[in-house]
Amino acid sequence: MQHITDVMGLACADYLNGVPNGKIKVKSNIVEDDVIPVPYLFRTFDQMPPIEQQALQMCHGRVLDVGAGTGSHALWLQQQGFDTTALEMSPGLCNVMRQRGVARPVEADFFAWQPEALYDTLLMLMNGIGLVGKLDRLPEFYHRAKQLLAPGGQLLLDSSDIAYLFDDEETQDLPETFDHYYGEIQYQMSYKQAKGTRFHWLFIDPFMLAHTAEENGWDCDIIHQGENGEYLARLTPSQAPSNDRS
Questions:
Q1: Which domains does the chain have, with CATH numbers?
Q2: In whole angstroms, what is the distance from residue 203 CA to residue 210 CA?
Q3: Alpha-carbon distance 200 to 185, whole Å?
Q4: Alpha-carbon distance 86 to 97, whole Å?
Q5: Radius of gyration over alpha carbons of the chain, in Å?
Q6: Fewer CB within 10 Å: N-end or C-end of the chain?
């Protein structure tokens, strides 16, 4: 099997080229193998989960869609008249977005990119905060997000408390006995004969999000919580003194 870094870009390019039912295989270090149906990455607003729909409807001003993927969220925002930038590290996905009509795809790393202007809304859907990888990188993330926000701006993100994955007779005590936060996951994706490199991905529970946000100078409001641990949060820079020395 060939090792590449842009598995999702390859799979989504195939979809645009007429491969209708592709599947991205996902291995992790905590659960059985899973698959991502490629058509799901091209969903319309009506096909999106309620949390995503609500987040999109809460956007205002200039929007930065972080980890934009195939551009489904950016396209809807464009259609509503929002000035939207779609930030994505995958060159293949950036090409897909261009083909789909996304006006401003940017191939760059969230932590390194230097924009020409600030944004009123940072949007991070499909567990976009996962790009942080591990809890100890959250202070860097919060600092970076502040650098990108205009005065009065907001950060909208969804994530999940995945403690339920360990809630059975054999594994119910595992989160407490891990040597790391239980939401720190390792993933590896493959598609056809292509296999990606392993990467770290973070799922953060709402209590940990609120706690770390406050420590780093943010106010955190949990806007919506679902039945399976998923939630939508809105974060805004706090006006009170904090540990953030930006």
A1: 2-237 (3.40.50.150)
A2: 13
A3: 6
A4: 9
A5: 18
A6: N
